[in-house]
Prior knowledge:
Membrane topology: Multi-pass membrane protein
Pfam families: Nucleoside_tran
Radius of gyration: 21 Å
Order of helices and strands: HHHHHHHHHH
Helix content: over 70%
Keywords: Membrane, Transmembrane, Transmembrane helix, Transport
Subcellular location: Membrane
Protein name: Equilibrative nucleoside transporter 1
Amino acid sequence: MQIIILKCFSYVALRGGGTGIAGSLPKKYMGYNVNGMALGGMLASIAQILSLVGNTKPADSAFFYFTTATVFLCITFVFFRLTLRSELYNFYMSKQTSMKRKKDPSTDDKKPVSNWEIFKQIWVYALSIVFIFWVSLSVLPAVVVLVVSTSTEHTIWTGRLFLPLACFLLFNTADLVSRLVAIRIPIPSKFKHITLLLTILRFIFIPLLMLCNAHPRSHLPVVFNSDVDFIVITVFFALTGGYLCTIVLTQGPKQVKEEHHEAAGSQLALFLGIGLMLGSVTSYGLVVLL
Length: 290
């Protein structure tokens, strides 16, 4: 439970700042932000595969992961500081500040827009981002790490490399591809309720993945007793998640006035953290139900 709480708060703190800033910039920069999420997952998957192929000791692997994370964290911090000093960032920040200060004389007595007013304009996307990460974290990684290959050939590909390749690397690759597609072929904001409906329909992936060849299990039968079935379900699971996540994070902040884009982006990051928390808690129950 402590790990869940720590991860959720750290994700909201770190991702919230980046999402809030990206939300105040033109839509394409939010696209770069969400693409970075998927690319980070791909790098982690590649690092895991290299560690397994190299037959490294657990202590060496831990040192490699920690060093890699530290290096990327330092690089991120440097570029974040450079972003805050860039002309692009200062232009849009000064633009938002000037828009907030510029008031019509007839509206001087009106109260400033509250977070609740902003939420009422983005609630559809806020719920959507909760459902997206709730579903994703419910089964990934808690359930999928229990899936084993059904192949009778006992090789490195059907053994220790099966999940890193057939699940994690494939998932993150499909996730990145779908995010790139979403930037070029988005769902218009006037159809935002369709976006919400699609995020709700993603809950079907929870029973689908639970009915794959995951072990140990005591209650549910194995329905999809094939590696191909598991791979196909994983690909569609990643494609829908990445596509809808990009739609929500790029369209959501643009539902409010320009001077409130950053606040809307930060709110979406908060609800993203709520989705992570719900998914992490739900995953415990799903493993018990197997």
